[in-house]
Input
Amino acid sequence: MSTRLSKGGRLIDRTKPQTFTFNGKSMAGFAGDTLASALLANDQMLVGRSFKYHRPRGIVGSGPEEPNALVNLGTGARFEPNQRTTTTELFSGLTATSQNHWPSLEFDVGVVNNYVARFLPAGFYYKTFIHPRFAWKHVFEPIIRQSAGLGQVPKEADADRYEYAYGFADILVVGGGIAGLQAALAAAKAGARVTVLEQTAHFGGRAPVDGDVIDGKPAEEWVKATVQALSAMENVTVMARTMAVGVYDHGYVLAEEKVADHTPGDGRPKKRMWRLRVGKIITATGAIERPLAFAGNDIPGVMLAAAVRDYVVNHGVSVGDRTVVVTNNDDAYRTAIALKEAGLEVPVILDARAAVSGDLHAKARALGIRVETGKAVVKVKGGKRVTGVAIGAQAGEGSVLEEVACDAVAMSGGWSPVVHLFSHCGGKLNWDEAQAHFRPDANRAPTNQNGEAMVYAAGTANGLLTGDQVLADAVAAADAALGKASGVAAASVTVPAEGAMLPVWIMPQGAGPALKMKMWLDYQNDVKVSDVQLAAREGYTSVEHTKRYTTLGMATDQGKLSNINGLAVLANALHEDIPRVGTTTFRPPYTPVTLGALAGESRGEIFQPLRRSPIHEWHEAHGAYMEPVGLWRRPYCFTRGAESHEASVHREILNTRSNVGLLDASTLGKIIVKGPDAGKFLDMLYTNVMSNLGVGKCRYGLMCSEQGFLSDDGVVVRLSDDTWLCHTTTGGADRIHGWMEDWLQCEWWDWQVYTANVTEQYAQIAVAGPKARQLLEKLGGMDVSKAALPFMAFSEGSLGNIPARVHRISFSGELSYEIAVPASHGLALWERLIEAGQEFGVMPYGTEAMHIMRAEKGFIMIGDETDGTVIPQDLNLGWAISKKKADYLGKRGQERNYLASPDRWKLAGFETLDGSVIEDGAYIPAVGNNPNGQGNTQGRVTSTYHSPTLGKGIAMGLIHGGLGRMGEVVEFTKMDGGRVKARVVDPVFYDKEGARNDV
Amino acid sequence: MLILECPYCGVKAEETELANGGEAHLKRFGPGSADNDFESYMFARKNPKGVHFERWRHSYGCGKWFLAARCTATLEVFGTYPAQTAEPPADLQAKIKAKRPDWKGY
Output
């Protein structure tokens, strides 16, 4: 069993006990524990179930590479799934539950998959669930979804907050081990602005655990002194608990700082997302130990050798009383020595190498540890816990020579440098034959904006596995990043001499199918040696395809343990060299990032900016039901009492048509276009002529994209000889202003035109209805009579002592004035109109009333009648397209034969025979099917409403043949599968002669 | 997250303050032009692995459009220049040619 030792543990504080729960069971640990070390201290080796076969899973590693020990952390609004216990700092009150099991961790029904595993090989989803077709959706998928998957989705809104922070540095050092600290020291002493990131709460990396001696002192002392020295330097920022997530273009690095993960609810943000922009990056990210592939290597109690050592040395935790060490390199001997020195039993070291030499080997022998060379684990015995190992010759096929009882196995297959950050932005790797790993190629490093190398690997991350090489390499990396010699001498490191490692990809090397089916490569996703070999036999020669077919390396650990082993097995199966098969692509994030941290403060009310009209507060105080229009909020309608929204809208329309209504039109885009060439420019921008518009007059205009499709519309006003004011749609203001600038800056840069988006500088209020003139006359100050201010004219003056420009334009069909005043006067004018309008029955109306009234008049709406595939000609707007102009934006596009075809769907009005409202999105079916077997169509609805004015449903839509089919009865689809009959009519439903406006 | 220097205001702008406008130095074909000319103006875009000329707008800065020459593979930026030109400045072309002898021209 695993337990806490009576002494030892360099990171824990035995005077600070911490209590926590796992699956409801109360447990105790110490400050300085990780959740993993605390679970092991409580003999909780079994922590989860695998993804596919639901096999028991125990802790394998001691760092971010952990594939198995993922738990649900916290409860309620602080619930987080898939948290790695090995990187979770313990605190009192922590609650964790295991994942991916039903009904319980100890007894899991899904484990039945394990007993039929031979029928669930690689790619079984693709092979098995193809027929019958309907079964995927209704049978297979629901069952797979129930049994697959790891953590659960949190059910409550996150109680924590997250924030962004920004940092800058000349040199960013990722990794606070001895290489990172040495590199940072060299760079900082040379005067560079340096930032150092360490993923854990502790600096020093592996060196203090491994017993390196630096400058004659234990590594721990050198680490402490160096961190102190760096922290004292003004040009250095040292950050712990901060994980570099990814390296991106031009020195952009994302890093996630765990601020309050270990102190939840203390008021600080849970995490801080750092957006760093740096000159050069030094990755001193160390290496990750590889597992060995032997049968039963997934049984709880089989762990990485260095992790076993970490738990003993860092946390005073033994993972077993009797630990068998199995290795192909010298480093694992350190684990055997550490265990022995802690008073634990190491029955045997199984070394796959035929001959072993070196200081560590000698020391192990001197401690009396039995070493067997040329030997392998044939099979691990045990179910939910290791009970022993069967030993055989590594060169053999699996004949058992001996069985040894043990309760833990420490394995080491060699070390793979953490090359992720070097590779994210295009860095290339070389295969190192001697160490059997990929390491960064300094000659093919990722480059920055100047074409220079941007990322330098240092120390173990650069493939240098012993301490003496590491520090010299760290200074070299600093010098390279600085572009000059730092002049700093590397500290000297004394390390034991190590022998060469031997690449071992399966154990024993001649193992047959029965053993290979129990050799795990990817623990989380249940990918075994046999699966990768099967994929190779089935023709998967690309490592990227094999990854996706077998799911090797696709789990939350992203193959940190499994990739190299899987790659080697694939290469062997294909009879290829490993470097020729290559690696899969390394992509950010290095480890999973909390979505909350990516969102930062962008949630709730400040998810996006909110634009308010100058009259917004009045609306909110007077029953407005708001709808989003772009970033604006506009009143959809103003409700009174218990009235429904529909009833409000109908009341607002009927009142506007019989009395007078007010619309807050402030959000309409307003762009000033000014200059000697402004008229020429507008003639290019609009489909009709704007240069000949008289001063004081208004004209409706259309804008198209270069492809000819209708993009925006609005009224253009000629303010003076060289100045026009272009009204755009609410959503189009910024886009159209950008469009204008694009053409002026990039195509017609010699034209003398200036544009200014003054949308927010003016409030605009539409006063519409038969009593609109009486209302304005009551305010006084301007002559708004028909003679002085005819339709499509404007005049400037003072209305009720407010400076105003009054346009006689109408989107409702009523007698209508649109009054623009400086934004600061908007609310005053609105309140004046409401007050003065009481005797005329004035009411505000919202966007829905506006929409329905314009539909009653057959006016088109950008976004309803248009969808980016509609040209003005489709909407019977040919009258607004100049035939005389040689050119305008979109003219050439509209000449294309498909757009000029008489077969295009064109605008018409529709009235159902029974007065009902055609459903939104309804189609007009046609006979027959298209080549895809879908029913043919001959038209569709674009706007459809109940008209309170006319007391029936009205609609506009596009139909093949357009108004040429006037009077014909067609059928529209309904959601329930039925049809509704409608007659093709003139889209102007109300006041066809325009008499209401002509007063 | 590229950094491009705006040639108007001199700011070394991060990509978040810029808006990409696609390929630079397109020739506009208007009314009366041949179908294939219009098609290439509208739709045919280069997608090189290597030197590329692009339109960028300093949207959240000075608002000006400018042009940039960069390598799509290595992310090296050869230079940025004002948009009011029909072709890249000669010194920039010479610089690119010196760095990339195989470059066939914009």
About this structure: Chain A touches chain B through 29 residues (CB under 8 Å). Residues 176 and 691 of chain A are 68 Å apart (CA to CA). Chain A has a mean pLDDT of 94.
